[in-house]
Amino acid sequence: MNTTSKTCLLLEDYLDGQLSKPDKDSFTAHLAECDACREQVRVSEKVRELFNQHPQTGLSDDADLRVRMALRREQYGKEPAKDVMNLEETAAWLGVTPGALAERLDEIPAFEIGGRIRFSRKRLEKWIEMKDGDILLQLQQSHLRKDNNLLQFPGGKHGKQQSGNSGAV
Amino acid sequence: MTFSDEELMVMFAAGTMAAFDMLYERYRHRLFRFARSCLISVSAAEDAVQDVFMRVIRSATQYRPGYSFKSWVFQIAANCIRDIGRVERKMICRNSHNDTSGLEIDDRSFHVRRIVAANELDQYLKVLEPDERMLLILREYEGLKTETLADITGTSPGNIRVRLHRIRQKLAAGRSAVDREGEI
Lengths: 169, 184
Ligand SMILES: [Zn+2]
Fold this sequence. Notes:
- The complex is a heterodimer of chains A (169) and B (184).
- With 169 residues, chain A is mainly alpha-helical.
- Chain A has helices at 11-15, 21-33, 35-53, 61-76, 87-94, 98-103, 121-130, 134-149, 158-161, and strands at 84-85, 111-113, 116-120.
- Chain A is 57% helix and 6% strand.
- In chain A, a hairpin with a 2-residue loop joins strand 2 (111-113) and strand 3 (116-120).
- Chain B folds into 2 domains: 1-109, Rna Polymerase Sigma Factor, Chain: A (Orthogonal Bundle); 110-184, Winged helix-like DNA-binding domain superfamily/Winged helix DNA-binding domain (Arc Repressor Mutant, subunit A, Orthogonal Bundle).
- In chain B, strand 1 and strand 2 form a beta hairpin.
- The complex binds zinc ion (ZN).
- The site of zinc ion has 8 residues of chain A, from helix 3.
- Zinc ion is lined by residues 4-5, 7-8, 30, 34, 36-37 of chain A.
């Protein structure tokens, strides 16, 4: 095995495909002469190939449920968030005030059972992901503002901010 | 616009439980696969996933905004897996008079390796110590950069390069040793 040179240090970047064209060219030339680097590349390729041939499965549904339950107990110190939640529970889960939530109700997926407003956690999760969270962030900001202004709810103001950038993101 | 992991983590630290659920959704399978690759049993890997997210909850306030969530969570995962792996190996060694077919056990050094029914990957990696195996998995399977690995392990990128180099040398040597054995 030859001694390692400065060029050998480019190995990891080469494996990541991170090298600029000239660096890549010089490393490729180096590979032809350096046994040590060739061996490293060979092993790396072998390992990556074996990982591809033997993919691990994901977390099973059973285990997923168990983990979620345990995490909920940790977070809430009580029962996990339900699949169907009322306004209060949904607000707590979203980390906003019930008032902020109520104000934006027309923009949030909710449904009615016997005249009561309810939220499906699964649908909310999807909605947050699809809406990419813009609304959630605004809700949280209004929640933070409320904390600052002590019950002085910023009515009417944030309708205008909606389409503008929300700064923090 | 999609929330970045880092934004979600900041929101969770501020009390948005939903943000935590989204991080869980993004990372649960990935962390499970990582744990599964490092540990021997499925249940140990499941425990590891739970422990990682427990630690995320408990140390949410310690998360520094702007710090890569991925680095942070894999750092936590590496610690969890190391802890659980130690226990797992000890348990297997203690019960080694029972049914441990399929495992190769060295009581003194807590070396436990899957041998029977092990796939080609496990066979290939069996010359590695647990920490070496973990580093290699983070590098070759998770595709993490040397800088990220340095963050995760609390060392320098230079140190990571050296360690990876040695690990691959070991694999190359182990490989040829296995080949030689086969020839006898
Ligand atoms: Zn070289």
